[in-house]
Write a structure and sequence with these properties.
Length: 435
């Protein structure tokens, strides 16, 4: 069922007019059947006469075309590559992919079934779209039927429920566990591209939130854990939407005058993971984004995410009225929210892990099982960013990181910890971006 849906989706989403069927030049989304799953990649072709050139899986290729029969070979510097034998029916190419290693030996599995469909250039967009969700999802899946198809440049206004599944009117709309709004199919988005999600506005749509009064086990040592033995109750918070402050509805004695500034944020922003793997649940985080719980994902921030499935399939959810670094309580001030965002595509740009940018700084994120490993991913992510956008060499990257980086622990409450490497734009003024 899922494979049939994906195949139909590819044909519908990427179909092109029948005008230019003689020339196979263009960019194709490739679905690769592997066991009971499907992987996606990109094939770039340029045809001159019967000769073909381009790239496949990021590697250069060459080949020939004889009528409908196409033979292609690609390889990297180490000699690993693929041999493809395809039949062209218009701009739909079907056939086999035989991977080989640097010694010329065929890899396992020896033959993969592939289908490549030409991606049409998306028409100009810029519409404002209204989406009222009726169903919410608990996994960042590439096989979920899209809730709405949008164009790059479109602005979407929608709503989210809170982490427990309750909406703006206090009605339970879904089971708890960060129910997600979406997914949004972005026309023209392909594996190997980057999706930019511009968060335009986050508006709290009710005057209450919930939290807890315990500390997550990852953040406490044994002596502190003993003092926490009687905690774990739910705390209800009043949100003063006009005054911009939150306060506990039934505070303990010492917190009667405690107020928290409202700083609405999205805990979850994600693109679908590759369809060949089990979809991560809506409490998880990783290179796809997900339950990042980074309190800088606020209005006027841009989130950059890798695309690993046609259409990207964007999910949003888990709104917080406010949250401290690390989500030490296991949650923020959990509430429902009105969300307005705009999407853009950055073609042929591979983003290794989520990135966030606002008017003041760039922020490279890393999510892994330990804070140490998350730091390594975030550092590599930022180094890659400085290399690609500012053309810095490794020595220059190290000097910038050593003198300008700020490090924040974004998340410790879930399976993966999160770390952000942050650099203020003021520290980058002396660099010529892209030169």
């Amino acid at each position: 069922m899922n494979r049939m849906f994906i195949a139909n989706l590819l044909v519908v989403a990427f179909i092109v007019p029948a005008a230019a069927q003689d020339d196979l030049s263009g960019r194709y989304v490739v679905s690769i059947v592997w066991g009971d799953g499907t992987l996606y990649d990109v094939l770039q072709l340029e045809q001159k006469g019967d000769n073909l050139s381009g790239t496949y899986r990021g590697n250069p290729l060459e080949g020939t075309r004889h009528g409908e029969v196409i033979d292609l070979t690609s390889h990297n510097k180490q000699g690993d590559g693929d041999t493809m034998h395809l039949i062209a029916k218009g701009h739909v190419l079907t056939g086999t992919d035989t991977p080989f290693d640097g010694s010329g030996h065929i890899k396992q599995p020896p033959v993969l079934a592939v289908t490549a469909v030409l991606a049409a250039s998306p028409p100009s967009a810029g519409q404002t779209r209204e989406f009222v969700p009726t169903q919410f999802y608990h996994a960042f899946s590439a096989t979920t039927k899209p809730a709405m198809t949008i164009m790059p440049g479109d602005t979407v206004h929608t709503t989210t429920v809170d982490a427990g599944g309750t909406d703006a009117n206090g009605i339970q709309r879904a089971f708890g566990g960060n129910p997600e709004t979406g997914p949004f199919f972005v026309q023209g988005a392909m594996p190997g591209d980057t999706l930019a999600v511009h968060v335009i506005r986050l508006r709290l749509n009710r005057d209450w939130a919930i939290s807890d009064d315990y500390l997550d086990g990852r953040s406490v040592d044994p002596s502190l854990a003993v003092t926490q033995k009687d905690t774990g109750k739910t705390i209800f918070w009043h949100l003063d939407l006009d005054g911009g402050m939150a306060s506990a509805e039934k505070p303990d004695t010492h917190l009667r005058d405690y107020r928290v500034p409202l700083r609405p944020m999205l805990g979850c922003v994600a693109t679908a993971a590759a369809a060949a793997f089990p979809p991560p649940n809506s409490g998880d985080s990783g290179s796809f984004g997900g339950n990042m719980d980074f309190n800088e994902i606020r209005a006027d921030a841009t989130v950059y995410l890798p695309i690993r499935a046609p259409g990207a399939l964007l999910y949003v959810g888990d709104g917080h009225a406010a949250m401290g670094d690390g989500e030490l309580n296991g949650n923020g001030l959990e509430t429902s929210m009105d969300v307005t965002f705009r999407v853009e595509l950055i073609p042929r740009r591979r983003t290794p892990s989520p990135r966030v940018e606002n008017a003041d700084r760039i922020m490279a994120l890393g999510y892994e099982g330990s804070v140490d490993d998350s730091l390594k991913i975030a550092t590599s992510n930022m180094a890659n960013w400085l290399t690609s956008d500012y053309k810095l060499n490794p020595s220059e990257v190290a000097q910038i990181l050593g003198t300008a980086s700020q490090i924040r622990i974004t998340e410790v409450a879930d399976r993966n910890a999160g770390v952000a490497i942050i650099i203020d734009f003021d520290r980058l003024k002396g660099l010529a971006a892209g030169q």
